[in-house]
Protein 1
Amino acid sequence: MTALIWATTALLFAAGLAMVVLRRQLLAMLLGVELMIAAVNVSLVHHAGLFSDAEAMAAVAIILAVAAAEAVVGLSLILRVLRAGRGVDAGALTELRG
Amino acid sequence: MTPADVPLEAWLLFAAPIAAILFGFFVLRPTKPEWTHLPILLSCAIVTACSFALAARVYSGHSFDLNVWRWAAAGKWAVDFGLRVDGPGVAVLAMVSLVGSLIHVYAAGYMKGDPGFSRFFLVFHLFFLAMIGLLTANNFLQLYLFWELVGVASYLLIGFWFHKESARKAAFKAFMTNRVGDFGFLIALLYILANFNVTHFHLIYSLIDKGVRPDALPAIGALLVWAACAKSAQFPLYFWLPDAMEGPTPTSALMHAATMVTAGVFLLVRSWPLIAAVPWLPPLVAGIGAFTAVFAAVIAATKKDLKRILAYSTVSHLGIMMLALGLGQVALAVFHLVVHGFFKAVLFLCAGNVGHAIHKPTANVDEVGGWRKALPWTYACFLIAALSLAGVWPFAGFFSKDAILDAAWEGGGWIKWASLFIAFGSAFYIFRMLLLTFHGQRPEQKGLKAHPHEAEAGMVAPVFFLALGALLVGLLAPAVQHLVAVGWLGMPQALPQFPGGLNLPGSPLIPELSFKDLFGRGGLMALLGFAAAYYLTMVDAGWDWRWRRNAPALEAVFESDFGWKILVGWIADGVVSGARFAGRVLDKKWWDGLIEGSADASRGAAGMLAGCASGRLNDYLWWMATGAALLLGRALR
Amino acid sequence: MTLFAVMLAAAVAVAFAGVMVFSRSLYVSAVCLLVVLLQTGVIFLLRGAPLLGLLQVMIYAGAVMVLVVITIMATGGEPEKGFERFADFSFPRWLAAAGLGAAALEIGMTLLLGGFSDAGAAPAAPALGAAFSAALFSSYAPATEAATVLMFLAALAVLPDKEGA
């Protein structure tokens, strides 16, 4: 069972990481971040049950809340970028060049 | 002895010339340059008086050697300035100051009207000062300093008429050749410092006496001999001296006859205990001296320019001095140095008068001839000096030269026959010069058609007094011997191959005069030389020009000094092109290219690394992800 | 029994995650993510944390994804001419993917070789739920409060600009 959970976590996390690093649109990156967080939550919950650690579950709850908040902030940032006329393409945002 | 005990004469020896030069440079040169010679002549008089006073002091046994000032010190090494007033130094100093002062007087007349009059006197006196410093130096380092300064003054004076290309080239050649020798001196200095930790003469004498570091001595001695060969124009490195005649005649008379070139011999005199401690060095010195003397005498007999004949004659006589040293006759070498100073100066100044008569810096035998009645004083002085050079009794040269040649005869080997030839050769070339210039009318010469006139009193009087010296200095032989023997501080008492020491009291210097000696070997050779010269210039009057016409190849051989000048030219060209290669290719192209290329390389590397800062979000994310994953992998392991 | 259920949920989640990465349309990606989050909630349920499962579905799948879809609608997620899925890198794209893959592989190998203990498929103790709730308001109370404050702060994100740019 643990091996299964670990495999799931690994694959989901890798998929989320691939989304963040490889895709062009900012929104796609955000989706990837959400996926990564979900994967980690899966692993945390399983181990919490395994070791009967209630506080770990509490931690998962907090993570959930914070992740939701972060998703909201991220979305609003993307909207701001859009409103500034810069598009949602990560390749166009190159102020850090050089 | 402390600096407070040093007699006033020794301080004045330096103070007077320094004051004269500073006053002349800063006050007179900008305002009244034609008066520059006045404080300098005064300084000359003071220096001469002081040097004779010091000589009297040393003669009575009060020589001294002390450090006056410590210039720099580091650990166990120190550089000191000091004064060493002892026998050989003060003997040469007296000659230098007297001859030098008279030549200064001559120069006042000779250089009158030259636009560089002020500069000439200042540099000339600077040279005088440097020579005084050299003769009173108490350690090798100080001697090296003044040695170099003398070389600088020589460069400035040879190239005095710098608008002439031949003068510039000659000055450069002289300086470079001396530099080659000076390099040997520098290496010797470093060896001395490394092995003995001190450079003071009296300390080194005592260290050698105790037998410290005998294996360092051959190298040091050989290098010092090399340096002396450059400065005193001995065989491998003599070729700068004939070309140095481009300088004004007072320069030639003082520097290249009496004083600067004798600095090399003087160095060997000062280093004598060091050199005598190595078994093969004195014979080497004697061999070099004898060979040079013969070589130069032959070439002197073939030259047409008066000053160049005298230049080769100087080389030949320096060879005789080296020969005397090599045979262990140190006092005799010093004595010949003193005597040579007088008669060679007379000869040069007479050549200057001859040139002055036709308004040229020097004269060629083609432009003169039969001037005996036109220039009577010059002729008389020249005759006295010529007889002195040839070693005829009772002139001074007899006492020194003949004694040396006698010692050479005792020495044995090829040097015996070389010494005979030297006696013959020197008489031949000097009488050839005398007869061609002052006697006889030959069709190839301009002769009296050039309307020569005697020089003014200011130029004749010094020559006259010097000629008196050339006549009478021979009487001072015992004085010189006494000075050298008694006044030499710290002299080791016995040296291995010279059990009698260095003509210490007890061994006779002057051979017993007898009728046999008057017409002994030396006298006979001189007579033969005179006879040959008379025949080939008066009886067969056109011989000198005829052999040149008939055998121009032979003349070319003599012109190139038996090919030695050509060889030296090749070596110099090789060195120059090597230097050019090192400078242009090695330094500029490769090394600078490497340094600048390193800048380009780092710029390129930076450019490559700058590619990481692309501004692309995805690039940064990728680096973060990959890097964190790899680090995590390491941490987990 | 739960093993198979978890296996099924996990398989569905991974499959839809794969589709999400490679889909051309952002809408499809969002919907796929929704499915994955739902599956995650199921896994939470199966592993003995029903409250967390509920929270996950409610908050994530319910609220956050809706917001995301709305934003995708605002920014345009349909494939059109010249719509590129993947970004350009300073180095070739395959190298980026390979690098990521290699790093993941290395960590995977490390874990595999390191070994792990399999504590079985036992369901969690029932008292865990109560302990969890208690923990939220006792030892994790500050964290809970902080998360609440964070929510309020996140609301600032949706404040409009003064100029309305």
Note: Confidence is low (pLDDT under 50) at residues 494-515 of chain B.
Protein 2
Amino acid sequence: MIQDRRSLLKTAAAASVVPAVGLPARARAQSTTIKIGVLNDQSGVYRDISGPTSTACVRQAIVDSGITAKGVNVEVLQADHQNKPDVGSTIARQWIDRDGVDVIVDVPNSSVALAVNGIVREKNKAYFNSTGATTDLTGAQCSPNTVHWTYDTYMLARSTGGAMVKAGGDSWFFITADYAFGHALERDTSTFVKAAGGKVLGGVKHPLQSTDFSSYLLQAQQSRAKVIGLANAGTDTINSVKQAAEFGVTRRGTKIAVLLMFINDVHSLGLQAAQGLVCTESFYWDLNDRTRAFTNRVRGSLGGNYPAMSHAGCYASVLHYLKVVADMGAAAAKASGADAVARMKAMPTDDDCFGQGSIRADGRKLHPAYLFEVKTPEESKGPWDYYKLLQTTSAEEAWRPLSEGGCSLIRT
Amino acid sequence: MIEDLLFQLELGLPQLVLGLVNGAFYALLSLGLAVIFGMLNVINFAHGAQFMMGAFVAWMLLAWGGIGYWPALIISPLIVGAFGMVLEKLLISRLYKLDHLYGLLLTFGLALIIEGVFRNQFGSSGLPYTPPASLGGAPVDLGFMFLPKYRLWVVVASLVLCLGTWLVIEKTRLGAYLRAATENAALVQAFGVNVPRMVTLTYAAGVALAAFAGVLAAPIYSVNPQMGSSLIITVFAVVVIGGMGSILGSVITGFGLGLVEGLTKVFYPEASSTVIFVIMAIVLLARPAGLFGRA
């Protein structure tokens, strides 16, 4: 008995020492355990659109893939990057160097997303970004190790911006979060507005995480623009919309274009304040039989939250990756993230969340973008019954053309 | 020239009114901080979390108990105030003899814990809370702008409460005891006044003020766990500018800085979150005790 405990202790000690010493990657590659790290915001403003729900969706993908039955073990780690690029980078490095993580998934917040992008490429692992918005991931900073799955600023601008102009909203005023993401979203949307014959009358840039937007809304009204474009996210968007409703902005005919909104934001706003808003997502739980089936499978482990497109992206990207792992073998997939991603690009995608699709050479996942209108409280028949579909932008049209991104992978 | 000026005025006047609304929140929150600091010598960093709790308790009362906005305006501060009392008795009261820094660290830690618990329970994107029907509906036409009725109510409620608190502390016997106790607690106790109990109640009152502001904020700001922490730093700047512990100072600077911030949002919106800190730096250089503080 004592002997047993001692040997147990020895094994435990050895196990804890080995990763710290850091064996060469080759030694570790022989094990058939795939390690997936879910890196996102677990405690801040993006917790509900990423956070624990993303991890639950990744676990669901592992179950649905049936990979365990094929003799491959999959382990899931999760960590909080606190929306700080330095924290995110440190975790990514530790995961890869010390814990032998093969895949990093999710990573909201464009600045953290880009920081992690560089590290994964340097270490030749795989990176599936779902919740980051920046088009740079498949443009100037594209990488053979990265797939940008769910959405980006170009797709949002095209779907929401284009539709608003078509519906007669030809003069715009922007309320923009004063950092890279907001600027990019405003720029992309302005391009579409102008291309469709609309005008941009002005805009105001507000500090991140403001509480009072009434002053900006008033300036927007004074500009007499027909559309107020909200190029912000999370609580900034929620506060903007809530206060726009309070000031009766839409009562006098002005339209609000929410350029980035997730279903969790709608839930937080309540239909009373959110009704009639138009937004773009690439997944909605109640879109079709397959999305409903997925939601039913995963819902029990979400603690009351519902999956948004960001969560669906975590699920679908991991599911697709595990298909490739089953195909090429876990050892080969672990040995080179770039090889695994190349196989993912070669294989057409098919999952319950996004249907059939594909991954382009620059790492851009292609699927349709859906323009939704938020239901009125009377139209909503149950919990989280929030959207009605207005329009679908096809996978061919929704994304920035390959030639315009400036991705260096394309020339080779 | 005159037309130009009129245009500027037309642009600026509504912003001043909105600034006043924000100022109402700054005033209410900094008032609570000033009361607590003035009487307890504790820098209550948990004030933002208590503000947030006020809003959340109002939401719970509505969602779970069907209790509407008006009763919540009374009940929520009472509940959160009682919670403050427990905190004071169990933890904060042990630190009175130590440096300010300990109180600051303790309350800061408490704020983080409270926020974490709420985030774990309710997520981070917030919960919906609509204004009461009697204050909803079409905004009021002021001639130069449309102002929601609810915002008018916020200004009125804040002014009344600030004035009331000032009167209690400056003009009543209870207030006199309080002020005396801050000067010399031992002596006041010798006269038969239960000083520890008074201090506990003062802390609870300060906390209740924060919770009241939280309920006021619930219908117009997003009710989320970080709603307090984004406001509290600004409010601390207000308190420093007004003079630590000065009741009247915190109220006047609260409203004043709301106005300054409102104007900044028109002329240079990017700086709207920094302007208060610039003013704080200038005031600290010129008058280290604050505008209304006694050095």
Note: Chain A has a mean pLDDT of 89.
Protein 3
Amino acid sequence: MSEPLLKVEQLCKSFGGVVATDNLDFDVMPGEIHAVIGPNGAGKTTFVAQIAGMLKSDSGSITFDGNDIAGKTAPERSHMGLARSFQITSVFKNFTALENVALSIQAHAGHSFKFWKRASGDKTLIEPAQKILDDVGLGDKALNLAGNLAHGQQRQLEIAMALATSPKMLLLDEPTAGMGTEESEIMRKFLNDLKGDYSMLLIEHDMDTVFSLADRVTVLVYGRGIATGTPEEIRNNAEVRSAYLGEDE
Amino acid sequence: MLSKLKLSILIGSFLILAALPMVAESEMIDEPFYIDLMARVMIFSIAAMSLDFILGYGAMISFGHALYLGLGTYAVGIMAHYELTNGWMQLLVCISGTAFIAFILGLISLRTSGIYFIMITFALAQMFYFLGISLEAFGGDDGLPIDTRSEFFSFFDLNETWNMYYLILGTLVVTALVLWKIINSRFGMVVRGSHSNDARMQAIGFPTFKYRLAAFVIAGVVCGLAGFLLGNLTEFLTPEYMHWFRSGELMIMVMVGGMGTLFGPLFGAFAYLMMEDFLANFTEYWQFYFGPILILLVLFAKQGLWGMLPGKEDISDE
């Protein structure tokens, strides 16, 4: 077995007296989808924010691709190949779908102290952006304002923007949040197609998504990882059942 | 992308401005006063546009933007006071001075956002206002007359009303064009992106702070240029231009003209100064009447006067 792509050791974060991440150990192997589940308030989003660099950890180490990234800013981590999608849809609503993705590409195409040439006429940004949109099935929506897309499409665009940063790993914070059954199904297929090409840390509420996609699952309760294992093992774990899945299930 | 109609209106306005001196001085009208009035309007248009650049596009709600207007007049005034009347030198000092101060103040204030940003830009500008008041050498709060206008070319004497007027008009047109180009450039996309969602911008890999800082400096320098022109036009230096009240006026011009429309503030400045001129004829308390008009505009015309002009604007820029 090779080295893990992401390795988190003894990670801690508390807000005042509330412990959001409690001595958490966690890793993601290359090409693996490792899902994190847990009840509301378990600290899932805090955990993602710590890995993406939006939140400073109190202690512990985060190693990504062989580098210690604990001291790096969010943009630096993005340049190292970590791409995050957000739980709350946060595409740029006043930009077209194409411009949203082009912006991601621009972020990784050198500095942006370029003041004169029109960005939206720049082929080196627009063409790869269009290609990514085609890949995720939003090709014909390229010129629609992102804010006018359906919810599910915005979530897909969100991931397209992450893909446009040519990441090694995706941090997906509830990609199916707020989706209906049908939309969830499309997203599940979409993520399944990406499986193997990218490592993923998948935060998810929707159990169908988790159990169909994940290679491994970690259960988070009050910031503490109470179990890690294959979906099958987690389903049969007594502690998990009482803490989270509910005894009656 | 601007719609054709809006673009025509804009170009038409510039043409009207270009023809104004001839009309105002013609025998039929003979009101040279209008030249001065419109010169003033254009200067405040430049200042308001520079504010809209950061406020409307970058969500940096600076409540101290008039500071740079004041700094520009001080650059001209202080140098003229010491008989350094070479326009190029004055311009260089004005640009580098406002850039430096905007850079320092940006470093401090851009660490905050929202209401804190508003308050800190307000406080920092007020510091300079009080500094101006305490500078007795330059007239304290009485201000100081500027005896000589900037000297650029021997054949282009700024004491000639027309030369002054066309210098201002030229600056306005160039500024509008340059800022428009910047807004649609890669740099502009970063500033606009961080407006709607800074965290997201960082997540896709932009270290947004330095871009926002650069935008803040650009806006400061452009407003400083407006101050440079204002000092020359009014031939007077006063700390009053740095007062928060002036910053508030600039914000009103932006809001009336239309936030995030760049060219709207041209019409905002025009409307505001005309309204001031017009209503002040009737009553000393003209603001009392202006207030409700402003509220109506903010409530019912989100993009201000610019939005009310015919020609649908395609927000997405193509």
Note: The mean pLDDT of chain A is 90.
